Amino acid sequence: MFDYATLRLIWWALLSVLLVGFAMFDGADLGAAMLHPFVARKDVERRVVINAIGPVWEGNQVWFILGGGAIFAAWPPLYSASFSGFYLAMLLVLIGFILRPVAISFRSKKESPAWRAAWDWIFFVSGLLPALLFGVAFGNVLLGVPYHFGPGLRFTYEGDLIGLLRPFPLLCGVISICMLLTQGAAWIAGKSEGDVRARAGRIGALAALALVALFLAAGLWIAVGVEGYRIESAVDPAGPSNPFGKHVMRGVGDWLLNYARHPASALAPAAGLFGALAAAVALAAGAPRLALLASSLSAAGVVTTAGFSLFPFLLPSSSNPDQSLTVWDASSSQGTLGLMLAAAIFFLPVILAYTSWVYYVLRGPVTTTAIERGDGHYY
Questions:
Q1: If you write DSSP's letter for every residue of 160-209 in order, what string do you get?
Q2: Three-state secondary-structure class, residue 146
Q3: 120 pairs with which residues across the strands?
Q4: pLDDT band at 333, cuts 50/70/90?
Q5: Which residues contact residue 359 at a Cβ distance below 8 angstroms, ignoring those fewer than 6 apart?
Q6: How far apart are CA 68 and CA 75, in angstroms?
Q7: Which segments of 107-166 does DSSP mark as H helices, in order?
């Protein structure tokens, strides 16, 4: 149906779609968890925030699972290198994901204020850890990851967890936090009333403005202070996957080369900035639905900006740039990609359909009246 080079491009685009889906859907859950102690002050208000994401967070996490599965099946060397190199960071992310359902389920099991306050802060950590570490991971990818391959593609990672926490990746981590705070604030504002909605609007607007400033700062840093990667040798887009078959050079500003070659790709950072500004205005004006659309556009723009900047690289190697993993030399076979594409064409619309149905059925705000009435399906 498609040739090998086209299938590789399609799966690069599909991976971007899955990451954007994760940022938009589960990003709202992570943002809500981070906002929880600050937008809700009374116990009933905190239950409103929890129940704003309670019915949907499990379905939203499907995007993360799909992303990991797509990397495993479509880009095996990338899966091996990234999950091995970022092992401890990924473990902390998983701890955050584990803490979230535990905090949601256990918080209201006892009337004790101390008990509930402890789970409130655990819920906060369950949002902060993944939000920070996902951004740190992207920042490290842009700097290059210290790994290389030996004979038989034996993978060796030369870094550690502390080495991931460099200034530029930490900046990317804060950008991720601001992006997801904006997304979470827009969601909470649309699912709540009164003081909770007002506080979410104020904090979300500030987070959106901070996102604009930090996103611009990161772009300037990449332009003048970060060495990007470029391929200097000939590449066969339909050739066999072999990370040893190219020559890679590094240079300050090289991550911006794709925007000069393909000017339309500049729409990605423009969407990131415009969406964040529009979300700030909408949140300040009390228009949560518009804010959620704008924040989602911003999240899509921020994520795809990283993708367009890196292309065709998937995981640059700072130890041996020539062994960096790219779209053209880290994929599965043509048959595997084709079979997976057929499955994706069927299942992705199904996922979008049931997600849309769930959100439609569960539309409308979570009210303090309903929670105080003691409806059994509320956390």
A1: -HHHH--HHHHHHHHHHHHHHHHHHHHHHHHH--HHHHHHHHHHHHHHHH
A2: coil
A3: none
A4: very high
A5: 56
A6: 10
A7: 113-143, 161-164
pLDDT band at 355 (very low <50, low <70, confident <90, very high): confident
Phi/psi at 193 (5° precision): -140, 170
Query: Nearest to residue 23, comparing CAs of 307, 287, 274?
Result: 307
Burial zone of 335 (CB within 10 Å; 0-12 exposed, 13-18 middle, 19+ buried): exposed
The length of the chain in residues reads: 379
Predicted TM-score (pTM) above 0.70: yes
Handedness of CA 16, 17, 18, 23 (dihedral sign): positive
Burial 129-158 (b: 16+ CB within 10 A, else e): bbbbbbbbbbbbbbbbbbbbbeeeeeeebe
Query: Can you tell me whether residue 106 is helix, strand or coil?
Result: helix
Residue 267, φ and ψ in degrees, nearest 5: -65, -25
Average pLDDT over residues 91-104: 93
The residues near 107 (Cβ < 8 Å, ≥ 6 apart) are: 50, 115, 116, 119, 120, 123, 379
Would you call 21 exposed, middle or buried from its count of C-beta atoms within 10 A (0-12, 13-18, 19+)?
buried
How is residue 242 written in tokens? 């072999």
Q: Do the Cβ atoms of 64 and 25 come closer than 8 Å? A: no
- Work out the average pLDDT over 249-278: 95
Contacts of 222 (CB under 8 A, 6+ apart): 142, 228, 253, 255, 256, 309
Confidence of residue 377 (pLDDT cuts 50, 70, 90): low
Cβ–Cβ contacts within 10 Å for residue 80, how many? 18
The total of other beta-carbon atoms located within 10 Å of residue 225's CB is 11
What phi and psi, each to the nearest 5 degrees, are found at residue 175? -60, -45
Q: Where are the alpha helices (DSSP H) in 243-333?
A: 257-261, 267-284, 288-310
CB 45 within 8 A of CB 368: yes
